[in-house]
Structures are given as C-alpha cells and as structure tokens.
Write a structure and sequence with these properties.
six-stranded parallel β-sheet, Undecaprenyl pyrophosphate synthetase, alpha/beta, 242 residues
C-alpha cells in the first residue's frame, strides 16, 4: 500500500513539475531570433556635418554588415541622409562595394531578388514615414502618389487598412504590395543617437514590437557599444502581448 502511494505521488510530482516548467517558460517568454533589420535615428538637424559623425555612420554600417544584418535603415526627421553623405561614410570605411544603398522604399530589384545580399541601406526621411500610409488609404483605382516609377503601385480601400492595422501580418503584405518590399521589413532594433528618446516620426507601423536603445553621441559610437546593444536584445525575452 505504501509503495503504491509513493509511486502515485512520484508520478504526480513529475506531471506537475513538467506543467510548471511549461507554464514558467510561457510566462518568461523566449529569447528572440538573431535580428536581421536595424533602424537608426539621427534626430539633430545639425548632425552629419563633421568627419567624426561620418565616421560614426561608417562604424555602424561596418558593424551591421559583420553582425549578420540584412537591412539597415537610417532615418532623419530633417531628411539629412543622402547618397552623398553615405558615400563619404562608406569611402571612409572602405566598403563601398559591399553595401547597396537606396533612397526611400524603392530597393533595387536585384537586391530583393538576391535574397537581401549584400547589406542593404535605406535612407529615410519624413516623407517616407507619411507616404505609405497615405497610399494605403487611397481609394481603389486611383493613381499611386509615389511618383518614383516603382512597380509596387496597387492600391487598397480604407476598410482594408483598418483590418490591416489589427493584423500585422496583413499589414506587412499590404505594405509590400503597395509601397515596396522593404516597407514590410520591420526593424528588430532601433538605435537613437542624441539626447532625446523620441522616435521623431520614424515610420510608426514598424515599431510595434521593436527594441529601442539610446546610444548618445553619434560621433562617439563604437563597435563595443553596438555589440552591447545586440547582446541586450538577445537577452530580452519576447513576452506574450508584445
């Protein structure tokens, strides 16, 4: 009799232990997969004028390329990022041939078809945060407002936009169809440089589940600071409801 009780209690303890471990893992969440998309916000309109700041950009691109990112989006609310600025940074880093750079959401088709290789760098301004949502709200049959010659010019009714805002996967499909493939590549991490922690108008549909870190002065950024942000991200468990 005693032996039967011991066996039953042992089995119950094993069962409850397994269920507790499962419940605990759900409550704690799970570590995120390695990030593939990095967003960078430079809010100061006086930025990108000095050589140390351009070198800071170069260090970010070099680090992102070496850390396995597929897409790097630089955003300025004042439209500071241009091909000229990025060329200077890439010249300093010596990786001009290892990076594909474009303005806005119109990624080169060869980059898209290559499986996001080499590292893509999208240069974004305030118009890139506003235009996609305006395009999604256009009525069916109206012309695209992009004016960029992009092939992604389909439009959707406003009711579809409302449904998409409630369903992120549908929103991604709509963004890719209407605006371009990179508009559906949401950042895993956003790094903010400067003294304020605001997003400064960064495309808001991309920030639903992003990790945001503030790194201070752009000119003072180092690969060690960037790697510390990545390590912090990898230690952050994805919790239910995020």
């Amino acid at each position: 009799m005693v032996l039967c009780v011991v066996v039953v209690l042992t089995r119950l303890r094993t069962l409850f232990s397994r269920r507790w471990r499962l419940a605990s893992s759900v409550l704690r969440g799970r570590p995120p997969p390695p990030p593939k998309v990095l967003g960078v916000i430079v809010p100061d309109k006086r930025s990108l004028r000095s050589e140390p700041e351009l070198q800071g950009l170069a260090r970010i691109v070099t680090w992102a390329r070496g850390s396995g990112f597929k897409l790097l989006s630089f955003y300025s609310p004042y439209g500071l990022f241009s091909h000229r600025v990025m060329e200077k940074a890439l010249d300093w880093a010596g990786i001009q041939d290892d990076v594909t750079v474009w303005k806005g959401w119109d990624a080169p088709r060869e980059w898209v078809e290559s499986g996001s290789r080499p590292l893509g760098v999208a240069l974004l301004g305030p118009e890139d945060a506003e235009r996609p949502l305006a395009m999604l709200g256009e009525t069916p049959g109206s012309a695209s407002a992009s004016g960029s010659g992009s092939a992604w010019v389909d439009t959707v009714p406003a009711t579809s936009l409302e449904r998409a805002l409630e369903a992120p996967s549908e929103l991604k499909r709509m963004m890719e169809r209407v605006v371009g493939p990179t508009s559906s590549m949401f950042p895993d991490i956003i790094l903010i440089f400067g003294s304020s922690s605001s997003l400064f108008g960064y495309p808001n549909w991309m920030t639903r589940s992003v990790e945001i870190y503030q790194l201070g002065d752009l000119a003072a950024v180092t690969s060690a600071k960037l790697s510390a942000s990545l390590e912090r991200y990898l230690r952050t468990h994805v919790r239910l409801g995020r």
